User: Which sequence fits this backbone?
């Protein structure tokens, strides 16, 4: 039976998370934002909190550090709650890229039996670039293995004597890996899963991830680094914030106990406040409820793809089984790039383009409605049916 707009509205009417949408800044109700997996929306609570922290700076000046100094680990503990980690094992600092650099080097330094590096061909570019650079600097081999994008990496792909970096949810296809089934020589990149689905970090040893996607911490917000046993590692960036007894300044370098040793320089206090708010609103909604809604919404999206888009030359670039995918869906089409541009310029739908041929649509259950999914797919169908994407300027822009 065909899916109708009334079906989507009925799903919204019984959605237990529906009220969370009002907690976000949404200035334009006509615009359908399906890119929360690239940059999440601004929570109203974060806007207020940031104003308060700015005022703290204004009134307390350097005295503010008495409270700010613990922000990276305090925020890490707030985040630990939504990514299934123990307190003291998550640090919020730096970008994902820099955290990966630190973690890979720290593991290689302390586990010399790992004699090469590995990742899959489909992994996110920054992960590959970091590994290429470290392999060159250390004279190590980097093995890049092929995977079926719809399956994602499998445990048997992981080379035995390698330190391997994999994404929990593949950034293009959305394939979801069963982390617990993999060897513990894997560093997991949780950029597309943290805040979108339950993760059990207690089952793995190492991870990095992003806070500006599903955790709504804002453009350029710091990432996180997780190590189950941080005291077994030594960071390659020996900075004064990772030093034991930081303010006894004449001492030689000695790593701080615990995850704090992965701090390098002075932490960005405004950003950390935004990460804490993002983690809080996620914890309040409950990650299980978020996942349940996300699955229902990606199911709706896929049903509408089958109903309307298949006939227009689209194929599904994401696993059909809900438990094998994350919270975004890629629709593949030969003309994906002009279609993405037309969606933004002519239909007020915000997706992103992921080469070579994917229109990627992200579901952020805290503020995406079922009817948004319906309307976005309807606008997409109309646009392609009428050939609107053939009328637009297809010059490639710097950000896609
Ligand atoms: C978004 C994303 C990143 C971001 O890295 P930054 O260094 O924070 O810019 C890293 N890895 C993956 C898989 C991502 O999706």
Assistant:
């Amino acid at each position: 039976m065909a899916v109708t707009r009334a079906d989507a509205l009925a799903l919204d009417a019984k959605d237990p998370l529906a009220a969370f949408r009002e907690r976000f800044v949404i200035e334009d109700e006509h615009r359908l934002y399906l890119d929360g997996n690239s940059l999440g929306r601004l929570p109203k609570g974060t806007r207020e909190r940031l104003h308060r922290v700015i005022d703290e700076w204004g009134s307390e000046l350097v005295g503010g550090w008495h409270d700010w100094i613990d922000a990276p680990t305090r925020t890490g503990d707030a985040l630990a709650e939504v990514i299934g980690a123990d307190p003291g094992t998550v640090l919020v600092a730096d970008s994902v890229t820099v955290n990966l650099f630190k973690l890979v080097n720290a593991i290689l330094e302390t586990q010399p039996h790992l004699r090469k590096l590995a990742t899959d061909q489909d992994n996110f570019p920054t992960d590959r670039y970091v590994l290429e650079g470290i392999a060159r600097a250390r004279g190590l081999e980097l093995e890049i293995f092929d995977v079926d994008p719809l399956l994602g990496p499998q445990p048997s792909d992981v080379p035995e004597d390698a330190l391997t970096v994999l994404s929990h949810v593949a950034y293009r296809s959305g394939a979801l890996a069963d982390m617990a089934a993999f060897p513990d020589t894997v560093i997991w990149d949780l950029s597309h899963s943290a805040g979108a689905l339950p993760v059990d970090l207690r089952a793995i040893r190492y991870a990095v991830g992003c806070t500006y996607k599903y955790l709504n911490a804002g453009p350029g917000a710091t990432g996180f680094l997780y190590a189950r046993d941080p005291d077994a590692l030594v960071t390659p960036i020996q900075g004064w914030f990772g030093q034991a007894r930081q303010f006894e300044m004449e001492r030689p370098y000695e790593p701080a106990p615990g995850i704090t040793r992965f701090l390098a320089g002075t932490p960005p206090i405004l950003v950390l406040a935004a990460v804490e708010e993002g983690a809080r609103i996620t914890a309040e909604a409950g990650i299980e409820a978020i996942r349940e809604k996300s699955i229902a919404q990606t199911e709706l999206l896929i049903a509408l793809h089958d109903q309307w888009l298949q006939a227009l030359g689209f194929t599904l670039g994401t696993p059909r089984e809900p438990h094998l995918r994350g919270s975004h869906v890629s629709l593949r089409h030969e003309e994906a790039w002009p279609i993405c541009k037309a969606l933004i310029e002519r239909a007020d739908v915000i997706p992103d383009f992921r080469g070579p041929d994917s229109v990627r649509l992200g579901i952020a259950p805290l503020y995406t409605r079922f009817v948004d999914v319906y309307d976005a797919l309807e606008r997409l169908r109309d646009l392609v049916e009428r050939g609107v994407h053939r009328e637009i300027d297809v010059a490639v822009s710097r950000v896609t």
Remarks:
- The CA atoms of residues 100 and 208 lie 6 Å apart.
- The mean pLDDT is 96.
